[in-house]
Amino acid sequence: MELGNPIDFTGQAVIVTGGTQGIGAVIAEAFLAAGAEVMVCGRTAPTTLPSSGGRHATFRSTDVRDPAAAAGLVAATTERFGRLDVLVNNAGGSPDADAASVSPHFVERIVALNLLAPFYVAQAANLVMREQSEGGGVINIGSVSAHDPQPGTAAYSAAKAGLLGLTRALALEWAPKVRVNHITAGLIRTASATALYGEDDGTAVAGIVPMGRLAVPVDVARACLWLAGPHSSYVTGADLAVHGGGEIPARHLARRACPPPFSSP
Fold this sequence. Notes:
With 265 residues, this protein is α/β, with parallel strands linked by helices.
């Protein structure tokens, strides 16, 4: 059996939205390390671009919430590299907000960034990929909030749940030329971990994760490489959980913290 090299993307072109910082930058660097040409986008140009082995990503200023800008991103990538093989819809996020008092404008912006923008970029990417003999792949970076919402994340959780539904719908419509998959990302240690998880940078929070640690961005990047590569060629419409097993149920944590008194038979 010839397995081939699952992480050789030489000659392929990849877009990573929100790829100038955080998880997106690490995803971009992973594809660069695997030989791909990479286009990243954001609303403002970064001080340094993602790079690997002396090769750098290309940057295009893009507000992916704008359908015309999203189409322009895909067109610019195709013009520069001659093709488009992989789209990673990574741009997203939201600050916590009280659902009882949050403004309609806030809700619209969160849904636009986390649900509509991935749709817009994927639409444009599909038009290119479906005309290529090798087709292409779309990977949507989702969140555990789509499955288990937390307080303060109503708009974000709803948008991410929609992204998971969108993934499955597009996978049905665009097969077999274009595969569309989803990653459910869990708690991830990034440069902003202190703000998200407390002054211990998430050490205490890691105790509720079965794997005993927070994810790091490269965990998500490696999952992207697999979903985009030949070893997942029959995988579409999938939801790949990269969350270390999720969260240990609160009742188990409470029981572990306060074990019942010993009783003899």
